[in-house]
Amino acid sequence: MELVCYGLNHRSAPVEVRERFAVATSKLGEHALSLREMEGIEEAVVLSTCNRTEFYLAGSSAAEAAEALRQQLGAGGQDHWYEMHRMEAAQHLCEVASGLDSMVLGETEIFGQLKTAYRHAHEAGATGGVLNRLFQRAFGVGKKVRTETSIQEGATSVAGTAVELAEKIFGRLDGCRVIVIGAGETSRQTAQALVSRGASTVFVTNRSHDRAVELAEELGGRAVRFEEWQSVLAGVDVVISSTAAPHHVVQPFHVEAVRRVRKFRPLFLIDIAVPRDIDPAVGGIEEVYLYDIDTLDQLARDARGRRERQIAECRELITRELEKLNLPGT
Amino acid sequence: MDRWALIIATLLAAIGGVNGMLSLRHGHRSGATVYWMVATLVAQLVFLSVRGEARAACPLMGLGEILVFLAWSLTVFYLLVGTTYRLSLLGVFSTPVVVVLQLVALIPGVLESNPQRVAATDAWRETHAAMSVLGYGALALAAVAAVMFLVLNQQLKSHHLGSGLFKNLPPARELLVSLRRLLWLGWVMLSVGVVAGVRMPRTEGSEAHLVAAMGVWVAYAVLLGVLQLRGITGKRLSMWTVLLFVVSLSVFASV
């Protein structure tokens, strides 16, 4: 008995290749059954999502069958396909179930998609002792990875880190008001991330007003003339600053002037400019939380490091679980 | 029996607190804290019912009973307010206060070993005692929320964000909202207690106690007034809340 995984995914193939081999959900069982009719294959499951198409095969000569399948698929662009055998294939299935192989690490949708694929194959009578045990174990491992590790935690980009911090300060961002000073790319990404989490009002100001209007339109916000941004400060919760100014744009007196009007509410300042736009002394004001690009980048790097350690832990957990299974074909 | 119930209540709160803190060290919140606090509440109720039966009145005679009543009140408010999502960590911060209050009550001599039946009860006196202590329970929980805010604020300001505690603390604004609500609730209850205190029959020493209680009431009123009218930073609001609560404990000392 041999176990083989043959497939392509978002890392190995671009969307125009993936879409050629996508299988409709309603056809998954039928497809798995047709694979079982191939010589040397006794069990099959077909998984097809927007990010991957994979064939899990078990049989006396599944490797040869996979070769036959490759020719049958006429797989133009052979480079896009990967083939895994025995333990490697089982490990891969568990990683898919756990979200480790997903575009968004740890996402949960794949778990449901994998269950659907298995159910269709099972109902069509395309699975047997090996794949039934393997898939059941993969579902168990997927749940365990999500409950025992925290692979999804911690933003790994500057924009994501800024959003996480905003949520730590304000909770839900619904109703949060944001001003973007300087219409650079990182500030656009950060503002967009805040809007996607519920920030309701975005003001954009830039030395070139046209650019501010452009970005404001993109974010569904309002452009403010550069000389007027201070008047908006009293009403906002988050300031994202990324101008090319060689001096500090936001200084302590700007914030001091609006503290009373703001009733000393928390104010989150994100300085992603180099040289810095916000005078570090502003961070000394009690209700102000000031983060510059270096701090945000460091936090994102820390999160990436933690995530890598978590992935290694998940892989160890998967290996341990599979060893316990002692499955024929692996 | 009553002393044993109090010892059990203290142990349960301590176990809940330690369990919660250990979970935090491992980077997650313990869902069990709330159950330990429910068990603590049950043991506190046993203590209070035994004492209440012995007194044939609300068990609020002497420092020991008042401290236990305060710990019970804090537990009740935690279970009412703190068990909502994201504020469950309030339990981990509340348990040390509950434990300390009950431990003080357990010091020999603090709690009357043979509670005497109260000869004549007075509705104003009972209302004053019960509402004041309930009010202090809410204010104690406000102080706990204030400590949580101060911890979070310090971590956010100094960019030390890697701890399990930071990950599990509720957002700063939510803490401030809870803090404000608890202050209002505590102050309103305290107001009822003070009004009842003015109406109750005077005894020796009750004058000084009432003056101290009114002083606390005025101090909280000023804090709420400033908060409402002028606004105040989260840090200052939290520091004042903790300070006022600690000072207000002196009212009990003057009982």
What does the model show?
Chain B: Residues 63-249 form the Cytochrome c assembly protein domain. Chain A has helices spanning 15-18, 28-36, 62-73, 86-98, 109-123, 129-148, 158-170, 185-196, 209-219, 229-233, 252-262, 293-325; strands at residues 2-9, 43-48, 52-59, 82-85, 177-181, 201-206, 222-225, 238-241, 267-271, 288-292. With 330 residues, chain A is an alpha/beta fold. Chain A has 2 domains: 2-148, 2-Layer Sandwich (Beta Polymerase, domain 2); 158-299, Rossmann fold (3-Layer(aba) Sandwich). The longest helix of chain A has 33 residues, at 293-325. With 255 residues, chain B is mainly alpha-helical. Chain B has one domain (2-253). Helix content of chain B is 77%, strand content 0%. The longest helix of chain B is centred in the middle third of the chain and has 36 residues, at 123-158. Classes of the chains: A alpha/beta (330), B mainly alpha (255). At the A-B interface, helix 7 and helix 12 of A face helix 5, helix 7 and helix 9 of B.
What is the terminal separation of chain A in angstroms? Answer: 9 Å
Number of strands of chain A: 10
DSSP summary: helix tally of chain A: 12
Q: How many domains would you count in the coordinates of chain A?
A: 2
Question: Of all protein chain pairs, which has the greatest interface, and how many residues does each chain bring to it?
Answer: A-B, 22 and 24 residues
Structural domains of chain B: how many: 1
Proportion of beta-strand residues of chain A: 15-25%
Oligomer: heterodimer
Number of DSSP strands of chain B?
0
Segments of chain A where pLDDT lies below 50 for 5+ residues?
none
